[in-house]
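Protein modeling request. Please complete all fields; requests missing the sequence field cannot be processed.
Requester role: graduate student
Desired output: 3D structure, token encoding
Chains: 1
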Amino acid sequence: MGSYSSAGSTPGVQRRATMKQVARLAGVGVKTVSRVVNGEPNVADATAERVWDAVRELDYHVDLRAGSLRRPGGATRTIALLVGSVDNPFAGELHRGVEDVAREHDVAVLASSLDEEPVREVAAVEDSIRRHVDGIIVNTTTVDGAALERVLHLGVPIVFVDRAPHNVEADRVTSDTRSAAKRATLHLLQRGHTRIALLTERLNVATAVERWEGFSAAFEQFGADADGAVLVSGLVGAAAAERAVLELMNGPQPPTAIFSGQNLLTEGALHALHLLGLRDRIAHVGFDDLPLADMLQPALTVVRQDPRRMGRVAAQRLFRRLEGEALQSEHIVIPTQFITRGSGEIAPRRDRHK
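Delivered output (354 residues):
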């Protein structure tokens, strides 16, 4: 069993300001500053914004042990795991990996869904801090981390998993998503496909952007006409992907191949192709594996990630910080596997798929 104290979570940090100094700069009382940084209600938005401006200007770090002084070592023995949606099987595997490591340390994991909403993400992080969790693992909803800017200064160790915001100095554990998307797209191009549709989530999601970048890079490297790279973004859930594929395939220039950039989007694409009777005529590669994907006819070609391993590595990194190690921020990449099973090897047909 691991041992740590929240007092050791930010070794070597020199606080350069006090709450009184923040209050003076913001023109409010100390109690107001306390309420804002702890996420308590009933503070006017304009007032809260002045407080956060002062926090950033003074590089103020909250002493989160204050609410936990009656606990041994000042630690609550809880960590927060914030994921896109707890009902997504990918998030379930991620959770299991985090929980496996947390159990070794006799620590509870508090999981919450973000529903791909940056505002909800900020609220969830603030709520976790208010509950005095010892650390946070977050599957962020944004590319640039702007939604979390005001809470990254508060002194709680945070590890980003699966999705990592750009330009944020923090530990990150992801797959090789950009290169994996490029490899999958090249696989389709090499089989003669010149019009390929990529289905992605909203482009405020880091992994969606990276898969689009890998997809585009494959077209460029192969020397294929960029007009054949069809992006369908902003999709949330299987039903949205199903509607998108039905529309694509009934359009004037249907693709001969589909690359679905997330497991739920793959499910929707499979439903649409099945309804249209096109599963054996349209090439299809999915990002993330699915249960029984190898039992389909044709079996599904996929980029397989290892979310459980990502969760374990992210949790191990967090607990090293909680145990007092002075670590430099690191980006840890977990390799993917490209698994050919049949659907991604279908050759293009030049008719209208009717």
